[in-house]
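Box 4.2: Ligand-aware structure prediction
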Amino acid sequence: MKRAFFVMAMTLSLAGCGQASKAPQVAETGTATESGELKTLQMEDGLKVTWLQDVGRKQSRNIFADASDALVDSLGLQDGVPSTISAFLAEKDGVKMLFDTGLGRKAGRVLPLLDSLGVRTSEIDYLYLTHLHGDHIGGMLDGDKVEFPNATVFVSRMEYEGWMSMPDDKKAQVVKTFGAYEKQLRLFEFGDVLPCGVLPINAVGHTPGHTVYQLGRLLVIGDLVHGAALQLANPDICASFDADKAASRASRKRILEYAHDNGLLMAGMHLPAPAFLKR
Ligand SMILES: [Zn+2]
């Protein structure tokens, strides 16, 4: 049944997203529009991606217990590590995809920023979630009201089932949110091909089924990195939010290397503004 859905979705989405070109390129010198909390990049394969800053902030160095004071001092990060809470809108052939949703209307800017772009939440076709922490699913509900009534919502099966086996107090927001989205939810396995050719990649560690998504030359890295100034050069350093530290380190190293080797543009939910990165 699930497979049938994906085949159907792929067929439909190819009608909406066109055939994937063989060697899409990032237009690094191409169109880019930018403000303090938005940046749109036009990629050469017809993909338009917009960074939406939910919250700009510094992360306390205290969440990086693996980092020595000497390292933190040498990088001038005693007062915190530049970071954001971010989400990304991707558009291709008239299809609108949102990667994560930020904290929600009361605390974050993602939803007002979509409004400012003239994108109605009812126009989002696909919502791809990297994982189910509150700063990623918070924008899905406004009180009890579903914000994305027409979106198919994608979550890795490992992530969803991992949360469902947690204690009630930990999973309350997840249970409430996905109760409201029950009919729109699609669970996938790593290795499936999702609509518009989106590839979910196993990046577990931060959470039970933490997912990175590749779309052409774009790699949405979720919470692989919380403090870029520390962790890019030292991927062994974890944030205190990483649930399984060993798995998180292994995923961080593997995915950063993959992005580098393939010249992918990374978009990260906690990268510093503007939250794109190419190495
Ligand atoms: Zn997060």
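In the box above, the bound molecule is zinc ion. The pocket of zinc ion is lined by residues 133, 135-136, 223, 269-270 (CB under 6 Å).
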